[in-house]
Amino acid sequence: MQPQPDRRADPEVSRLRLAADPPTAPRPDPPPEAEPEPPPEHTVYAAMAEHLADRAMVVANPENHLIAALLTAGHAEAAAVLALVEDTDLQGYLPGVVIALIRHLVDTGQEPTPQEVIVRARGPFDTAPRPTLRTLVDYVSQVYTMGMPVRSWAAASDVVEDAYRRSYGEIGTRMAQMAEAFADVEELEEMTGAAVRQWRAHRARVHELRRRALGAARPVAQLHTPERDAVEDRPHDEPPEEQPPPEQ
Question: How far is Cα of residue 154 from the mean position of the Cα atoms in its chain?
Fold first, then answer.
């Protein structure tokens, strides 16, 4: 028997073999490996850490301290503080909304308690965009339960002083933009004069709030005894009464 020639290298044979073999389907990608779920205690710890971080940010904000002080103050004290604090002094959105509600309560002769603030928030008030009632309730609850010392005059002084400092940056930026835009010199001078008048009025409020904050920080409660009361009630130019000698 004669050996058959090797035709595997023949291009015609290779073409016929490729046509007869069915195409192989591409292999599907393997499914992605699922990330292992963290243990339950890890989720609880992460939630607690996030809550503590949020709580720290609430406590660190002086505007929240002012709101907390006004929520615990009586009508007379709240009115005196609000006379030196403007709504625009507060930079935060929710503190600005709540202080506007407190001001409305004080102006109408009501006590600025958390309950009255929430009741007032249910009605109409000029704020856009208006927060939801739940957002206001959550904020008032967090601020009211901070558990920090309440000093209304000191908190108001911090808030107004921060606003005073911000006004320099805001007006300075605006003046720089006008100068770069080649605004008229008269416009720059007019804006500078208005800014100086605004800063003087603002500085007067800062000074008065600092004075009252220092006065409120001094101890006013003293131990009352009959001897102390007798000395305090006696006129300063009247000599003390001579005590009779003790009987022998």
Answer: 16
How many structural domains comprise the chain? Answer: 2
Whether the model clears a pTM of 0.70, i.e. scores above it, the answer is no
In angstroms, rounded to a whole number, what is the distance separating the alpha carbons of residues 30 and 20?
Answer: 30
- Residue 61 makes CB contacts below 8 A (sequence gap 6+) with 92, 95
Cβ contacts of residue 151 below 8 Å, gap of 6+?
Answer: 65, 69, 213, 216, 217
Mark whether 130 and 181 lie in a shared domain. no
For residue 48, what pLDDT is reported? 54
Render pLDDT for 209-222 as a digit per residue (tens, 0 to 9): 999 999 865 543 33
Cα–Cα distance, 194 to 171 (Å, whole number):
10
The single-letter code of the amino acid at 21 is D
**Sign of the dihedral through C-alpha 40, 45, 50, 51:** positive
Spatial contact of 136 and 97, defined as CB atoms under 8 Å apart: yes
Question: Is the pLDDT confidence value at 190 over 80?
Answer: yes
Domain that holds residue 207: 153-216
Q: Residue 105: pLDDT above 70?
A: yes
Which region holds residue 29: left if phi is over 0, alpha if psi is between -120 and 50, else beta?
beta
